Amino acid sequence: MKWNTATNGVMPIASAGHALFAATMIGLGILALIKGDFVAVWQPVPKGVPAREVLVYLCAFISLACGLGLLWQRAAAIAARVLLAYLLVWMLLFRVPEIFPAPTVVGSWFGCSETAVMVAGAWVLYAWFAADWDRQRLSFATGDRGLRIARVLYGLALIHFGMAHFAYLKETVALVPSWMPQHAAWAYFTGGAYIAAGAAVLTGVCSRLAAVLSALQIGMFTLLVWLPIVASGSRDAFQWSETILSWALTAAAWVVADSYRNTPWLASTKR
Question: At what angle do helices 207-221 and 183-203 cross, to 10 degrees?
């Protein structure tokens, strides 16, 4: 992907998802600095982790610096590279181990799936902004290859989200806004929609439509479920954490959806 030269080094916005994702990373970094603790995207982190407080500020700095770098032309490639590496390491060190104690339990995969969506968004940006150094030394992670890896991660995460809707149906039904009819039907529908979208992304069948609709569904969940709760004055830490996490997932999903913008809506793409 080629970019026009921007004045004062300001990065030309590749897509709305690019701008939203960068702004979200900046916001997460600032919030972590204010709290002096991990924000929802990085939680839970065991209290016994060595140098936990140092890790808090390191995560905040990386998030803030990379978010700003994604908006600066000269730093975009480095920012995308560092952010992708950081998210991958975080997933491998803190999220994948959560699966091992009970790999057959759907709930064990939540952290890994959520982080996988963030990784997918960062990977798309890395594939877009990769410099010559990246394309020469890390060609497997850039260009179309990088996009395919990002989409696989995203598709697998969507399937897990859908399975979770069915495995935790009671909890899902409870989150459906009271003004909407047939709460159970909505829980079943959204769960099935996630699974169908994930399968479409993985197989390449109508993948653009699936990616856009899934990003829209995550965004609508943020707008219709979590934002009204916190806007009502809720001080529940869990509800605020879920709102922040849902917003971050929306931003990352939007980036993945943007990666299909040159693909016809109903076309089949190579897996």
Answer: 140
Residue type, 159: I
Q: What residues contact 193, with CB distance under 8 A and at least 6 apart?
A: 162, 213, 214, 217
CB neighbours of residue 194 within 10 Å = 25
Note the helical H segments in 104-236: 110-129, 132-137, 143-167, 169-175, 183-203, 207-221, 227-231
8 Å CB contact between 253 and 154 = yes
Task: Name the one residue in this structure whose structure tokens are 């693909």.
Answer: 263
This prediction has a pTM of 0.91
| Angstrom distance (rounded) from CA 113 to CA 94 | 12
Using one digit for the tens of pLDDT, what is the confidence trace for 239-262? 999 999 999 999 999 999 999 998
Question: How confident is the model over 54-81, as a mean pLDDT?
Answer: 95
Residues, the chain: 271
Q: Could you give the CA distance from residue 181 to residue 35 in angstroms, rounded to a whole number?
A: 38
Q: To 10 degrees, what angle do helices 237-258 and 207-221 make?
A: 160
Looking at residue 5, what is its pLDDT?
A: 39
Q: Cα–Cα distance between 29 and 67 in angstroms, integer? A: 8
Q: How far apart are CA 139 and CA 229, in angstroms?
A: 44
Query: Residue 43's pLDDT is what?
Result: 85
The amino acid present at 14, given as its one-letter code, is A
Residue 60, beta-bridge partner list: none
- For residues 77 and 130, give the distance between their C-alpha atoms in angstroms, rounded to a whole number: 5
Contact 225, 192 (CB under 8 A): no
Instruction: Specify burial of residue 236 (Cβ count, 10 A radius: 0-12, 13-18, 19+).
Output: exposed
Check if the beta carbon of residue 265 is closer than 8 Å to that of residue 210.
Answer: no
